[in-house]
Specification:
The structure is a homodimer of 202-residue chains. With 202 residues, chain A is an alpha+beta fold. Chain A has one domain: Alpha-Beta Plaits (2-Layer Sandwich), CATH 3.30.70.930. Chain A is built from 5 helices and 8 strands. In chain A, helix 1 packs across helix 2. At the A-B interface, strand 1, strand 4, strand 5 and strand 8 of A face strand 1, strand 4, strand 5 and strand 8 of B.
Amino acid sequence: MYSGAQISIYPMTDDFVGVIVGALSALDPYRDRLQVETDDISTLLVGAPEVLFPAMRDLFVAAAKSGKHCVLHATISRGCPGEPDDAVCYTTEYGGPVLPLEQRKQMALQAVQSAPVTDMASAAQFSLYVMDTNDHMDEIYGCIDFLRQSGTFDRAKNFCTKLGGDAGAVFATVQAALCRFGPPEGHVTIDLTVSANSPTVR
Amino acid sequence: MYSGAQISIYPMTDDFVGVIVGALSALDPYRDRLQVETDDISTLLVGAPEVLFPAMRDLFVAAAKSGKHCVLHATISRGCPGEPDDAVCYTTEYGGPVLPLEQRKQMALQAVQSAPVTDMASAAQFSLYVMDTNDHMDEIYGCIDFLRQSGTFDRAKNFCTKLGGDAGAVFATVQAALCRFGPPEGHVTIDLTVSANSPTVR
């Protein structure tokens, strides 16, 4: 099943090009398992979720370690109709029979608990969209229940959920949301924003 | 029906706070018809689409007129289950009987043609998500057909469609996509990124 993201990094500094170029080497350990394609708006990363999320995390952390206020935005998708399947997207994260919602919540919580620590504090918000099903709100409420127990939950906002904490746990939370909720073969997307070093008081 | 957006402006400059603060007065003509609520990640705007999109456009153009590379991101939603209805969201843009897809395409094209000119060149990309329907891809393909005729179409990308042109036409295109496609009472969302003054060659 095709999966990937359109990602952008926004360093709020005159040297935004330098910050981005300086962070790009963070993608090197993942490049053999990702397709990468850049234009003036975003960079397309195509690959399995277990590669995609660590790659986004490491790129974001590398940019944020500049100390500048940095934001990563990602439009993430799995199972989009009309997108070709691709071997680079092969994953064991989903597919197969649908497990009970409660079991999927526990798998999601375990994934967040075992996430690596990056020592980069972050704030994030995301929206999970589940298409092709008439009970999509059940999956979303199940996901929200996971989020409230995840340790990264900040608060519910209109149209999205706000997270906070170490970037390792935050990206693991969003990865689990994509992989554990919605039909295994369904079309599920996420609109994700992650921020570091904001001068704005929470 | 509840409608609004979580929006963020990213000016790629050391003086990002100054650019944002300097642009905020662009919202003044709309404030009596919008609810506005800001935190460290985004600003919530709640209101009808015919107020929301011009407000986002004018805010973006005001920031971009700084000459700095500026990006606006918006998570836009209408008809989200669980959100309260609100009088500020009353609109004549949708609701009522479902019109034939071809007629809605024509209404969308007319809206783009009559959009005001802002003299701010922009590039944009967005994803349209239609929930709660088993034929959501029909609505999306109908929308793509409108986009190809809109005059702002740049190209199809994985997970999104890229637009370009005057910011007036670009925001009118996205507004028409939200209002004219998907069920009138349905849950429809957009993940939108608009950029100006990028140093990257297209």
